[in-house]
Write a structure and sequence with these properties.
One of its GO terms (cellular component) is mitochondrion. The chain is an alpha/beta fold and 356 residues long. It contains 14 helices and 9 strands. It folds into 2 domains: 174 residues, Aspartate/ornithine carbamoyltransferase (Rossmann fold, 3-Layer(aba) Sandwich); 149 residues, Rossmann fold (3-Layer(aba) Sandwich). Helix 4 links the parallel strand 1 and strand 2. The chain is globular.
Length: 356
Amino acid sequence: MLLNFRSLFNAGHANRIRKHLVQCLCSRHGQPTESPIQLKGHDLLTLQNYKAEEIEYLLWAASDLKERIKHKKEHLPLLQGKSLAMIFEKRSTRTRISTETGFALLGGHPCFLTLQDIHLGINESIMDTARVLSTMTDAILARVYKQGDLEMLAQEATIPVINGLSDFDHPIQILADYLTLQEHYGSLKGLTLSWIGDGNNVLNSIMLSAAKFGMDLHIATPKGFEPDPMVIQIAEDYSRKYCTKLFLTTNPLEAANGANVLITDTWISMGQEEEKQKRLKAFQGYQITMETCKVAAPDWTFLHCLPRKPEEVDDEVFYSPQSLVFQEAENRKWTITAVMASLLTDYSPQLQKPTF
């Protein structure tokens, strides 16, 4: 790991340097553990920063914890005595419940913090908040509007920072999606994902990681709602590197053609309410229906990160046997639990590693 020490010193980020040195030593030399992957002390801001084998490790740990805790009823106090600061600028069902219950299952204490509870960026700078929380808690999960605020938290904190959602990325959602698909299909390699909807943060997360598993990606977005050009460039580079196919179109049926997995999300995210009528007009024809599914692969499935609105997908598809949305929602719990265990402990999965 190469560090730009000049920029770090110029910014006066002594805490951040110490944090990076710990990460560097762990990644180069590791620590005594059965697993070859060592993520303890790392941040999770985007899956772009994670190698394929590191993402595989998180999914393996999630499968392992799900089996041991849910099915075998094991008690695993891995986070006994540890606390988690949960900063929520945006409301949530799945992120909050999965994180709180997952951290508590491992014996830790989650602290839920909204903007009404703390001074983040209002009466106290993000920098000062990060430094204070670093002295009182063991990790931070932040669900924020701006990716830049998340990066500032990570820059100033001396403890792991997890992206619970930002305007740019939603990595913990995509981990749950991949775990769900691995459970259903037995492997991720060779699957074709079809995204039909907005070029948003969830799509960014898929584009920054799908090729690492050998998955092709078809994307249909209306004109004016395409993915970020920078993300497209990165995804194209990944597609060449991992020999996968990346296809972008404005035609939903073209994107769905031959796809194993049909995926969509809300067309109107929090903070975009004023654009509702404009967006509903732009997305006409993008609702996923059984007509869409007819051109997909025979083994098609459907994913949606929720909450869902009927204009995005009709009831026939959403509540069909091919819909994996509730399994996907549950897996938010097991993947975030695995992330927290991996970033805060030397946890090594006991189950045999699944095929990815």
